[in-house]
Specification:
By secondary structure, the protein is mainly alpha-helical. It is built from 19 helices and no strands. Helices cover about 75% and strands about 0% of the residues. The longest helix has about 40 residues.
Length: about 525
């Protein structure tokens, strides 16, 4: 028997295990590298492939998965995704070599692609109005909770049991998800979908998203010295340009082009690209800077961002409900603006840290914990408030801007963009940060060949310098890292401010009530 609570639980659990597996496995990678034999790939490469192979297949297949859900049935596709994720998780947990684990992780990402857009499509089809906004908020809050639980759960499982338990733990979660989905979730699909499924369009979209994501990840790993990264970006960009023309010629395109006639749908995806590019900076560069330059431990750097996540977990549903009642525009504009203010506060971190006794010439000096209360906590609180205000209203705006029948592919497009944005922005920021760091380092240490491989291996942007370096080089590296960190933060502020402006100017609030059907609000027909 269909149940709203059951549908929400299944949707949160299905997407939650996909997000959880991203963070849990991060903690397990060192032990995986130690325990698993690797013959075809090296240990470090294998660890990177274990992590990135999952993300790449997940990203590349999201839009295909959303279209399959709308075409063949959202409940059916979700069940297949759950079952596939459970099977591939067990295979990962039993993998005999690094190469087999990489292969199983790619398959696991493909199964996960069926769950993320499908979860939002299930909510859209089952809920409407203010209740839908609240449901989206709970979904967003639960997604945020995985960032807290992931490293904690992964660390406990790896230390107490084995790294294999980090994968095998998914099996009972999947079993619960399957039971709830089969009992409580009602089937829904795009009733207007007829004819053959657009497999050529699916292939082009997979090349577009996969090429852009792979190019960004691989290029950054290789410091943009491998032409394969540029070839992947070119292939992805070419496929992205070709896709609209292919869709216009198809009777039943994978992505109906009429979706982009919805102003809110188009603007939300543009702002997602910009804002999620900025999120990359805080989630990647801030912990790296705290550990490598300021001397925080890995645990302290990980715990530093918890206030932001807790705000998202506990208050996201409230702002989702408010967006469903009053419209999303004001929240989508105010949220990124506050996030920009939070990031801007971090521009003062090095000076404040120096005031607390930081001695650049002494590589053993650590930053006193009190500096966190002044330098980072206010930034994380303001940033977290902005993130909480924005996330659920953005999801509400997206899902109410299209007909319910297209909710699967609409969610998938936005999820794919939220993954491409960080990779493309991360690639550009990496180039800016790295170039600025080594130019500054060369100016501070005349005669140092910053292009030499051995120098770059011992002195890297925002990372802790090699322990045997002279004190003056350590001090110069920390100063150069501080300037590089400021560059990254300024880029993030600019992106967030741009996202806030885009939403403030072009997002429109729908009429308060009475339009549309089901969960589609004022969506066009």
């Amino acid at each position: 028997m269909a149940s709203l609570r059951g549908t929400l639980f299944a949707a949160i659990l299905g997407s939650g295990i996909v997000f959880l597996d991203t963070t849990v496995v991060n903690v397990a990678l060192p032990r995986i590298g130690t325990d698993l034999p690797a013959t075809v790939v090296g240990v470090l490469e294998g660890q990177a492939y274990v992590y990135n192979g999952y993300l790449l297949s997940l990203s590349a297949l999201l839009i295909l998965a959303g279209a399959l859900a709308d075409f063949y049935g959202r409940r059916r596709t979700f069940v297949v995704g759950l079952a596939g994720f459970g099977v591939t998780s067990v295979l990962c947990g039993l993998a005999p070599t690094m190469e087999w684990l990489v292969a199983f992780r790619v398959l696991q990402g493909a199964a996960g692609a069926l769950l993320v857009p499908g979860s939002l499509a299930l909510i859209t089809a089952a809920f409407g109005g203010e209740a839908q906004g609240r449901a989206f908020g709970l979904w967003a809050g639960a997604s945020g909770a995985t960032t807290i639980l992931g490293p904690l759960v992964g660390g406990i499982l790896v230390d107490v049991v084995s790294w294999r338990a980090a994968f095998l733990i998914n099996a009972p979660l999947v079993a619960v998800g399957l039971w709830v989905t089969l009992r409580a979730v009602e089937e829904s699909r795009d009733e207007s979908a007829t004819g053959a499924f657009d497999w050529p369009g699916a292939a082009v979209v997979a090349i577009a998203v996969g090429g852009l994501a792979f190019g960004g990840i691989y290029g950054q790993q290789r410091e943009w010295r491998d032409p394969l990264a540029f070839a992947a970006l070119a292939a992805g960009a070419g496929a992205a340009v070709a896709f609209p023309f292919l869709a216009a010629r198809s009777q039943h395109p994978l992505v109906p082009l009429h979706l982009f006639r919805s102003r809110n749908f188009t603007v939300t995806n543009v702002s997602t690209l910009v804002i999620y590019g900025a999120l990359y900076v805080t989630f990647y560069y801030v912990p790296l800077f705290m550990q490598g330059t300021l001397g925080y431990t890995a645990a302290a750097a990980g715990l530093a961002g918890i206030p932001s996540t807790l705000l998202l977990v506990f208050f996201s549903s409230r702002f989702g409900a408010l967006a469903g009642r009053h419209g999303p525009r004001r929240f989508m504009a105010a949220g990124p603006a506050l996030m920009a203010l939070g990031v801007a506060w971090m521009l003062r971190v090095p000076a404040a840290s120096a005031a607390w006794g930081f001695q650049p010439g002494n590589p053993a000096t650590l930053i006193p914990p009190a500096s966190y209360l002044i330098d980072f906590l206010p930034a994380y609180l303001v940033y977290g408030i902005g993130l909480t205000i924005m996330v659920a209203p953005l999801t509400t705006c997206l899902m109410t801007s299209v007909p319910v029948r297209n909710s699967g592919v609409a969610s998938a497009i936005n999820n794919a963009i939220s993954r491409i944005g960080p990779q493309l922005a991360g690639a550009a920021i990496f180039v800016a940060v790295t170039a600025g760091f080594y130019a500054d380092l060369a100016a501070r240490i005349p005669g140092l060949d910053v292009s030499a491989a051995d120098v770059r291996a011992r002195i890297a942007p925002l990372n802790r310098p090699a322990p045997d370096l002279p004190a003056d080089q350590v001090a110069a590296a920390r100063d150069a890292s501080t300037r590089a960190f400021r560059t990254a933060m300024l880029i993030s502020v600019a992106l967030l401010a741009a996202g806030a402006a885009i939403n403030a100017v072009w997002i429109t609030d729908p009429p308060r009530a009475g339009s549309g059907t089901g969960g589609s609000g004022t969506a066009p027909g």
